Amino acid sequence: MMTMFLYKERLLSPGQLKRLSEHKYSFTSTSLLDSLLQPWWNWLVSKLPLWLAPNLITVWGLIVNILTTLILVWYSPDAKEEAPRWACFACALGLFVYQSLDAIDGKQARRTGTSSPLGELFDHGCDSISTVFVALSACIAVQLGFYPSWMFFQCFCAMTLFYCAHWQTYVSGTLRFGKVDVTEAQFTIIFIHLISAVFGPSVWMTKIPYLNFQLKGLILVSTIIVGSINVYQYFYVIFTGGVGKNGSTVALPWLNMELKLIPIYVAVLVAVLLAQSKVAIIITGGVGKNGSTVAGTSVLSPIIPFSLVVVPAFIIYRKSIEHVYEEHPALYILAFGMVAAKVTNRLVVAHMTKNEMEYLDSALIGPAMLFLNQYFNFFIKEYIVLWLCLIWVTFDLLRYSCQVCVEICEHLKIQLFRIPVRSAIVGSEKNGMGSLSIHGGGGGSGKQSRSKHSKKFQH
């Protein structure tokens, strides 16, 4: 009943659901901070009741992160006003809470014996939304509204890097985390919020002696350096790591692209990301026929859906006579961020169901409102259209996410936010009424006990 209420047709075919139920999470990680944080995560999960569902832990962490960011948005919607120091501290605390809860949901799943592919999908879905709010909060904390182009780059760079991480997973079948990755980025932003909380957001306007360089410039430099390294790693996997037939992705063989088209797509991507020019060197060709992926599709096919988000966002920003982005940057980033989150979720679903990713999406109706309004000489005030865009894309994202979860729950015969009584009892007996068996994970390799990301997606 609920499925039919959300959409007229089911989103996932029986074949996709079957492949999803057979999906096994695969990752590698060399994160510097994860091993240091393991004792904290292990202690924290040991304090949780066995009846608490892992997905409920994830969603509550996301809610805390969103609410604390919205406090900053309330006080500084243009990212120019100096937000209260307590709001910056609340944002730092909210991100730490989210990061901690996001790190222990998989531990709780293995502890209660409720691991399933739905947990991985739900976790990635929440992360895609969190990425938007985390990037936006960091920009507000350092008053990047005075530099709108810079703020645009920072926010869309974060969304793009997150998308690329799952793009290379779609190609290789394995999610890879480097030494400086998501955990390190989260703690860097927590540190930025704490500095703003202690010294005030205006501290980032301070010029570094002898360099005539504002302190906030260090954020841009670090973003470009770390982002370029990650992009290099992602594209190395994308172009050489296909695990499907003939080096394809995890999906099925419907679409292949000629090798000669690879430089065109990479040139576009490099222009959007402002990444290092040497990315082009990576393009030596896929290891399989026509450089295909795990789904049997082109390794470059995922660039098209995301380009339909980033390119319109940039064009609308630059063409706006009313300067809708400069006047309302937080609202603008949230609107397009929700579209990016929807597209990323669809990529994760395509990977886990080994299916081709469709290019067009209903969420693009939102940006189309702004584009058509500009095309017809601003028939409606852009600020109003931007609000309509945000409302639509948020509704569309929630509708899609809810239906996918409902369909998977029906197929796997599980509940999203509840643990069966039997699972809780078994978990209690298995762990000696609270004595955790979390070192070494749920039947995985020893690496699972050393990485946040291993335990995250096992529920």
Automatic annotation (TrEMBL):
Gene Ontology MF term list: diacylglycerol cholinephosphotransferase activity; ethanolaminephosphotransferase activity
Annotated region (Disordered), positions in chain: 438-459
Protein's membrane topology: Multi-pass membrane protein
Gene Ontology biological process terms, A to Z: phosphatidylethanolamine biosynthetic process
Signal sequence, renumbered to the chain: none
Family, similarity comment: Belongs to the CDP-alcohol phosphatidyltransferase class-I family.
Designated name of the protein: diacylglycerol cholinephosphotransferase
Organism for this UniProt entry: Gryllus longicercus
